[in-house]
Each structure stands twice: as structure tokens, then as C-alpha cells.
Sequence to fold (214 residues):
Amino acid sequence: MHLFLLIFISKVFITQKEKTMKKIIYIFPLLLSMMFAHALAQNTSYKLAKNSQIIVEGTSTVHDWAVEINDIQSNLAANINENDISFMNTSLDIKVDDMKSGKGRMDRLMHDALKKDKHPIITFRLDPAQTKTNGANGNLMVAATGTMKIAGIERVISVDLEGKKNGNNEIEFTGATELQMSDYEVDPPTAMLGTIRSGNDITVRFDLKYSPVN
Fold:
């Protein structure tokens, strides 16, 4: 009698366990697909607007100088809402040949120093999944990190950016970072037999505007 009761209870337990497992096996793919669909709905691809700009500023033994860069290739995949921002995939490419000061000789010296022929592109890749909280006046404060590649040398840098929403769902990021040419094995350009020399420190200022890809 006791043996029969034990066998009966065991069968009931196994049957219930099998039913539970079947429910889990059925529900799990459904939950996974819902989570994946939610992620796709959240993430948005953005393209860089033509009025975006990067300015590189430096010094020399004669005067300060600045280079404006308007031809920038960049894409952004992010989840941006009222209180935070999550980057999934962000890249930025600059052709060394497009870095121009308006002074031909200075541009040639700068391009040579940046080893344009061997390394024609300067790249920046932002680390993914950077989420930051809301800043003052409804703007988003972003302390971003990423990898900058100049003249074939890669370095991890930090960039403080302020993001704000403009019209037509456009997102604008402004900010700056300090770099040293020597960190990328770039010799500061010189002229007039070395009597004119650029400083080692430069400042890179960003004004990047992104709009959603339709």
C-alpha cells in the first residue's frame, strides 16, 4: 500500500514538473522576442547634418591658429529620451586632406605632420552603452569615452559633451577635449628653419548635429 502511494505521488510530481517545463519552454521564446522587439523600437539611427563642424585650435611661437573641419563622416545609433542617452554604435571619420586653415603652406606642413599619405583618415569610435542622466535646463550631459586614431596611433580619450534637442527631432552635441600631438607620435609642424613652431597642445571643439534616419 505504501509502495503504491509512493509511486502514485512520484508520477503526479513528474507530470506537474513536465507541464511546468513545457510552459517555460513555450513562454521563454515569446519573452525573448518581445524583449528584442522592444530593443529595436528603442534604438534609433541618426545621420550627421551638413551644418556640423569640428574646430581644432592650437598655438605657435608667432600666433594662435585654428582649423575648421566641415566634411565629417559620422553615424550614430542611440536610444535618446527625456532623461538619459544610451549609445549603441557611434563613429566619426575625418579626412586629413579636409583639414584646412586657409593658408596653403601651413596646411601642407600640417598634413605632412599627420602622415596623410600613410594614414589619410582620423577616426573616433565611441564606447557603447554610455548612459548619462539629465543635466541643467533639460540638456543631456554626456561624459563619453572612446578610441581616437591619429597618424595610425590609437589612444583612449574622454570627451565632455552637452546634448540638446532641436527642432525636427534633431540632437545637437557640443563640447571639447584636450589632446597632445606627441601622444600620437606627431611632431608639431615647424617653418622658417624651426623659428616658427606649433605648440604640442591642441583643443578639439565639437558641434555635431544629428537627425533621425527616415
User: Anything to note?
Assistant: The first strand starts at residue 44 and ends at 48. The chain has two helices and twelve strands.
